[in-house]
């Protein structure tokens, strides 16, 4: 199982992670990315695509 952590201080609200996630796990709440889906697939696409380096992926 995977979970991502979003650093609110770093997130610019660009929406790239929302667009790229294949499982609709991410959304935007105002200008900050938030988790809205049920399952992260652990693909790391959002981590790679976040220019602000605001996303950390953890496996548990
Ligand atoms: S890609 Fe990064 S900076 Fe952009 S909304 Fe997602 S977490 Fe925030
Ligand atoms: S690691 Fe992949 S599945 Fe998980 S939130 Fe990021 S883009 Fe979506």
**Separation of the first and last Cα atoms:** 6 Å
Neighbour order of strands in the largest sheet: 1-4
CATH topology descriptor: Alpha-Beta Plaits
Bound molecules: iron/sulfur cluster
Quaternary status? single chain
Low-confidence stretches: none
The run of helices and strands is: EHEEHE
> Which word captures the global form?
globular
Proportion in helices:
10-25%
Tell me the fraction of residues in β-strands, as a range: 25-35%
Which architecture does the CATH hierarchy give at level 2? 2-Layer Sandwich
Mean pLDDT: 97
Count of distinct strands = 4
- Describe the biggest sheet? 2 strands, antiparallel
Q: Can you tell me the number of structural domains?
A: 1
User: What value does the Rg take, in angstroms?
Assistant: 10 Å
CATH class equals Alpha Beta
Structure description:
The protein is an alpha+beta fold and 60 residues long. It has a single domain (2-59), classed as Alpha-Beta Plaits. It is built from two helices and four strands. The strands form two sheets. It has a two-stranded antiparallel ribbon. The chain has a two-stranded antiparallel ribbon with strand order 2-3. A hairpin with a 2-residue loop joins β2 (26-29) and β3. The longest helix has 5 residues, at 16-20. The mean pLDDT is 97. Bound molecules: iron/sulfur cluster (2 copies).
Topology:
Blueprint lengths: L1 E5 L9 H5 L5 E4 L2 E4 L9 H5 L5 E5 L1
The structure holds iron/sulfur cluster (2 copies).
């Amino acid at each position: 199982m995977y979970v991502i952590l979003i650093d609110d201080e770093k997130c610019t609200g660009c929406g790239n992670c929302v667009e790229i996630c294949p499982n609709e796990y991410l959304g935007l709440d105002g200008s900050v990315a938030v988790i809205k889906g049920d399952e992260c697939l652990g693909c790391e696409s959002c981590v790679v695509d976040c220019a602000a380096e605001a996303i950390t992926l953890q496996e548990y």
